Amino acid sequence: MKILGHVAFLLLLGGIWAQNNRNVKPGGKAAKKAGGVQGSDGAQSPSVVNMTPGSQGGSRSSGGPAGSGQEGGTAGARAAGQQTDDMRLHFLKNTQVTCNDGTAAGFYLKEFRGSRKWLLFLEGGWCCYSKETCDSRYQNIPRLMSSSGWPQTKRGSGILSSQAEENPHWHNANIVFIPYCSSDVWSGTGPAPTPPPRPRQGKDKVRDRTTNTTDYTFMGSLIILEVIKDLVPKGIKQAKVVMLSGTSAGGTGVLLNIERVASQLQQLGAEAQVRGLVDSGWFLESKQQRSPNCPETVSCSPEDAIKIGLRLWNGVVPDRCRQLYKRGEEWQCFFGHRLYSTLTSPLFVVQWLFDEEQLRVENIYMGGRSLSEAQWQYIQNLGLEIKNSLRDVTAVFAPSCLSHTVITKSNWMSFQVKGTSLPRALHCWDRNLEAIRNNRTPAKGCPFHLVDTCQSPQCNPTCPALVDRATQQELTLLQMLVAMGLDLQRLGVDPQGEADSLASMGSNGG
């Protein structure tokens, strides 16, 4: 059970998939400070990767960015008329704001000259909250704690694409991808005060991160603010619209930071309307019974992990939400259904009604080896619970599907609710906000509150396909349930009748 719990927490809040075979070895603080992270942008030949969250790129050809000079090279390419869809890596000018291991934090930028639209994207990847979980994360997923292996360029997909056919309404925005390397759900403001480490003797005088979590820094919230400062010379102060977006943990990061971003831009003199786009970051509290020994074990619930993590990260939550809860209960502000009503910035919530990462928290793995009747009952109830939690959300796109994250997928235009695609719904929301801002009557027949009315998982005919983990074959929901050992007859399910019913619900309710 502990192992399953550990896996669930590494995967929760998402964007973590297969790792590449990077030959970058994590090093201690002494080594990373010598890595040349003080420069602004690397001048090496870029390695290009796809920017879908969770994808991995190759490491740099050398240990770190070498001085400034990339700006000149980029400008030269533009002058020669060469167009590129790649976003280039920039390290923060404030070198005191870093990734977990002290390497420079940064961002990827694809400028669209003359555009007054800015799209800032926060990557996902859950968190770590103790010595054991942080050490494991650093060993197994180093890119989520260090910039030492980040590629020089990335290419976006979905809403991060600069191609009009893939991204009809936001392709002409300045697009900023902010890699997640703080492991704090974008809430940290530095390490919490801790007692000094015990004196060491001989070889032990060198501090070893495997025995002391104070070697890690947690600055997710500060990274966002520093990125915006560094974007001022790029023109973000002249922005008309700034959309702070994110998937999974990045989506929760949007909820936690949008008010601070709006306040910061206002203080800088910007007149932009700040909006939030939350993709698969709207979670419910776990119903799983956990070990009472947390944090001595790794099988903590998300709530316990955040409670512990908040102290380690010196984490912050929005002021208005924090005031609702007594000291020690601030963790509740990480859950959208508790936080949403306290926020003033416009928000659009994208949420699969049967989110796979929400299921993983309960040790339910679709396409895995087994599924109990109790787990199947939980899955059926989950859709209704998430639907109820979204009732008062003004702008929402919630298909009745088993999946996780959508806005950065290249096929994101193919999913529909009630005949409306997600890009179309976002465009309708944009138009509505512009109309209200300019004292005009919003357009009719352009919906942006879209929640599936059918009840069952995968009843929406546009849902992403389900894939068997062992065979990688696409299966229908009923085929998958049988493959996972569920006795449909015992549950009173007629496979043919249920399939017809699902198809009917999908075509009528979608």
UniProtKB/TrEMBL annotation:
Signal peptide: 1-18
GO molecular function terms noted in the UniProt entry: palmitoleyl hydrolase activity
Biased segments, Polar residues type: 41-53
Top-level division of the source organism's lineage: Eukaryota
InterPro entries assigned to the protein according to its UniProt record, in alphabetical order: PAE/NOTUM
Record's compositionally biased regions (Gly residues): 55-75
Keywords: Signal
A GO biological process held by the record: negative regulation of canonical Wnt signaling pathway
Region span, Disordered: 27-81, 188-211
Biased composition (Basic and acidic residues): 201-210
Family under the similarity heading: Belongs to the pectinacetylesterase family. Notum subfamily.
Identification of the protein by name: (Atlantic silverside) hypothetical protein
The species this protein was found in: Menidia menidia (Atlantic silverside)
